[in-house]
TrEMBL record:
PANTHER family hit by this protein: HEME TRANSPORTER FLVCR2, MAJOR FACILITATOR SUPERFAMILY PROTEIN-RELATED
Protein name: Feline leukemia virus subgroup C receptor-related protein 2 isoform X2
Pfam families, A to Z: MFS_1
Source domain of life: Eukaryota
Subcellular location: Cell membrane; Endoplasmic reticulum membrane; Mitochondrion membrane
Membrane topology per record: Multi-pass membrane protein
Known role: Choline uniporter that specifically mediates choline uptake at the blood-brain-barrier. Responsible for the majority of choline uptake across the blood-brain-barrier from the circulation into the brain. Choline, a nutrient critical for brain development, is a precursor of phosphatidylcholine, as well as betaine. Also mediates transport of ethanolamine. Choline and ethanolamine transport is not coupled with proton transport and is exclusively driven by the choline gradient across the plasma membrane. Also acts as a heme b transporter.
Stretches with biased composition (Basic and acidic residues): 7-16, 23-34
The keyword Transcription regulation is annotated on this UniProt entry: no
Chief location of this protein within or outside the cell: membrane
Start and end residues of each stretch annotated as Disordered: 1-50
Length: 510
């Protein structure tokens, strides 16, 4: 028996070791509206009982320990890709001199990630619905690996075009990454841990950004000798390629589509509709007509677009006020992301405990705006320790917002595909990321960093107002709550609203 067969035999739940086709997971919204009365009903964290005329039958649910293995594999895969996004921009002054290019060219080595995402996200979301989670992750990790190896041959001043092509291939992998955390969490994790799992999935990308801020300034010192510089750049590229290769092999061998038995009643109901009752095009149109979700799409894009611009232009902002501090620029970026990872994890745990999606999203958005203003007005004070402090505050809230947007979107759009909703969120973020990066870069060149950061703060204010206008309609929570209410009525026992499915008669841990 091969390693793959052994792993499947011990960890897969189907009799033949294969998961059912992923497209069986999707549902018809009209059918679910009839079953769950979702069309006009709202649920808040304070709700207790929601009436339904014909509640769906309860189904068996189960949590599998290997869900953490799937999450870890995605974590390191996303981490590898995010590292390669920032390995140029955080030492942009060094690469500009090495390749003989201007600031716009070096910025496009980062912005190509945003541009690639926009035209490819709709076909990749279609593939996610029709081919499943495993195929998407395998293909994405393959692109990530191929792009990394292309860049290993570009440590020469005449190879900018080829290194740009390698970065483009890596950017294609991003399309197969950014929409996955909410989908992976919903497919594998229980009701009371799904937001935490989504946060951890997002943390993989943030960890890669953190390493991308920290490692390149260490591996590639600002030396004058071109041959020595080429040697250091080649070492960084080969390390990236080696890590990407190991991750690709692990994904091919280990990563699985979904558990045999769903983790929640919401997922069980989402699997119950036949594939021919689901239309991808109709799903997109329903999402575009969902006003609360579309408001979230815009506000999410504004917030994350600002984060992308700050990340891409961080080296230029720091070097302008603190010349020769390339290493500290990377450390400040690392501070932003580590603080953001803490914020993401706290927000995920908080959502699992309280289910206060809109309230938490709104408060974090306001704090992101405040942190951006504080960072803007303290960057030029001449004290690096102040920049570390304010940048950490910015990362805590702005990066902590990422999983909030994903999870709030899933609640507003259930039972639509989690990959579709998160894909539209990320598409908005990429569009605003390009606009903000180009605009802020030009503003910094003409008027300085303060004007550029005030420019971003204005759009964060607009996003805060839009977030306040979103109507909270927590459809996924409604489905899970109805299942719990039905359990209470069928067993005659009293059960708290906050009780987890894992603690009920219907969910067991293996």
């Amino acid at each position: 028996m091969s390693g793959q067969d052994l792993f499947s035999h011990e960890w897969m739940d189907g009799k033949d070791g294969f998961s059912p086709p992923a497209r069986n997971e999707r549902t018809n919204l009209g059918e679910h509206n009839r079953q769950l009365s979702l069309g006009n009903g709202n649920i808040t964290s304070e709700g207790s009982v929601l009436d339904t005329e014909d509640p769906p039958p309860l189904m068996e649910t189960r949590l599998y320990k290997r869900r953490w293995v799937m999450l870890f594999l995605f974590f390191i895969y996303s981490m590898s890709n995010a590292f390669m996004w920032l390995q140029y921009s955080i030492i942009s002054n060094i690469f500009m001199r090495f390749y003989g290019i201007n600031t716009m060219a070096i910025d496009w080595l980062s912005m190509i990630y945003f541009l690639t995402y926009i035209p490819l996200i709709l076909p990749v979301m279609w593939l996610l619905d029709n081919r499943g989670l495993r195929d998407i992750v395998v293909v994405g990790s393959a692109f990530n690996c191929i792009g990394a190896w292309i860049k290993t041959s570009t440590a020469h001043p005449d190879m900018f075009a080829m290194t740009f092509f390698g970065q483009f291939v890596c950017s294609v992998a991003t399309v197969y990454i950014l929409g996955i955390p909410s989908r992976l969490a919903s497919l594998w994790f229980g009701q009371q841990e799904v937001s935490t799992a989504c946060s951890i999935g997002v943390l993989g990308n943030q960890m890669g950004i953190a390493i991308g801020f920290l490692i390149p300034p260490i591996l590639v010192p600002n030396v004058d000798d071109v041959n020595e510089l080429a040697y250091h750049i080649k070492i960084m590229f080969y390390i990236s390629a080696g890590v990407a290769t190991v991750i690709f092999v692990l994904v091919v061998i280990v990563f699985q589509e979904r558990p045999e038995i769903p983790p929640t009643q919401a997922q069980a109901q989402a699997r119950s509709i036949l594939p021919d009752e689901y239309s991808y095009t109709a799903s997109i149109l329903r999402l575009l007509r969902n006003k609360p979700f579309m408001l979230l799409v815009v506000s999410y894009g504004l917030n994350v677009g600002c984060f992308y611009a700050v990340s891409t232009l961080l080296n230029r902002m720091i070097i302008e006020h603190y010349p020769g501090e390339e290493v500290n620029a990377g450390r400040i970026g690392l501070t932003i992301v580590i603080a953001g990872m803490v914020g993401s994890l706290i927000c995920g745990i908080w959502l699992d405990k309280t289910k206060t999606y809109k309230q938490t999203t709104f408060i974090v958005y306001i704090l992101s705006l405040v942190a951006m203003l504080v960072y803007a007005f303290t960057l030029n004070q001449g004290h690096l320790w102040v920049v570390f402090l304010t940048a950490g505050l910015l990362g805590l809230f702005m990066t902590g917002y990422l999983p909030l947007g994903f999870e709030f979107a899933v609640e507003l759009t259930y039972p639509e595909s989690e990959g579709t909703s998160s894909g539209l969120l990320n598409c908005s973020a990429q569009i605003f990321g390009i606009i903000f990066t180009i605009s802020q870069g030009k503003i910094i060149d003409k008027w300085g960093t303060l004007a550029g950061n005030i420019f971003l703060s204005i759009f964060l204010l607009i996003g805060t107002i839009i977030t306040g206008l979103i109507k909270s309609d927590l459809r996924r929570q409604k489905a899970n709550l109805q299942a719990e209410v039905q359990t209470v009525s069928s067993t005659g026992s009293v059960q708290d609203y906050g009780a987890t499915a894992s603690g009920s008669h219907w969910q067991r841990q293996s």
